[in-house]
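Lab meeting tomorrow. Please check the following:
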Amino acid sequence: MWRWCTGMVLLAVTTQAVESLPLQLALWPPIQVVCKDSTVQGLKLNLPYGDNELVQGIDLGLISGAECFEGVQVNVVNWVRDLASGIQVGVANNDGAMDGLSVGVGNRVSTTMTGLQVGVMNVAEDAKGLQIGVINVTETMVGLQIGLVNVIREARVPVLPILNWEF
């Protein structure tokens, strides 16, 4: 049954709960078409905030939350608790792990960032790829940092202006 997460029946499709839908319209959990613990495969619109277990496709709006994400995210705030794969554009991007491109004022990855971070401040526990920003910070790096302040804490030279690298 397709339903509002608050329990209002919108459209009876089957007698079983739908695992995923191609469209998410979210005001604020639980007021969203697809429940938080379900999957969105298609378009997710966060007006202002939506949160789902897995999102695959295009994610647009103000604030987006997801356990895992694959596709293109364009929100003011993108928050992926586990793995974000693809492209993220936002003022703030906060991920458990990231594989792809993240563009924002602030980009933060709790574990491994594989790909490219572009922002004013880029932070990753472990970085594999490229960080371009005013301030770039990581514990370990296999790649390059370009910015005003570049920090690779476990490098032979942990702080360098303009360019820092570890291979």
